[in-house]
Amino acid sequence: MRFFSKPVKFDATQWLRQGISPRRLALTIALGFAIGCIPVVGIPTVLCAALALLLGLNQPAIQAANYAAMPLQLVMIIPFMRLGKWIMGFGPAHSQVYDWLRQIVFLRPAVQVGWLASQALFGWMLVAGPAVVLLWLSLTLMFRRIPAIASAESGD
């Protein structure tokens, strides 16, 4: 028994394509996936929607890629924090300000979470750029081999 019937496959292809070229669709999915990995829960959906509107990208495709990346987002929070901490270091000037802010009792949790989030975001930024380029190139090659999507190539 087949999982998807022919009309469902056709609808999914039309929904993803929506008149955009393989390059543009690949960029949409690459950006959605990379933004979906931002190590701050809740931010990627809004950021993907804004970016799709700003750049005229396929809104359903970017959100689908964003949601597909959510498990990876949760798994990568700790590695991104470690990468950010390793790259940023923790010099004497930073530690003095950090220690001073931690002394203010009601700010302590916010300062700790903010510092960890900034390290994770920095780690994500280092990885996201090259990841988008690699995903974009590989997805473009893949989409050009799919006849239903490749037919929109002239609109690029």
Sequence-ordered SSE layout with sheet pairings:
Layout: H1 6-17, H2 22-36, H3 43-55, H4 59-68, H5 70-88, H6 92-103, H7 108-144, H8 147-150
Rough outline? elongated
Order of SSEs: HHHHHHHH
Number of strands: 0
Structural Rg: 20 Å
How many domains make up the 3D coordinates? 1
Structural class: mainly alpha
Q: Can you give the helix content as a percent range?
A: over 70%
What do these coordinates show?
With 156 residues, the protein is mainly alpha-helical. The protein has one domain (16-155). It has helices spanning 6-17, 22-36, 43-55, 59-68, 70-88, 92-103, 108-144, 147-150. The longest helix is centred in the C-terminal third of the chain and has 37 residues, at 108-144. The protein is elongated, with a radius of gyration of 20 Å. The model has no long low-confidence stretch (mean pLDDT 80).
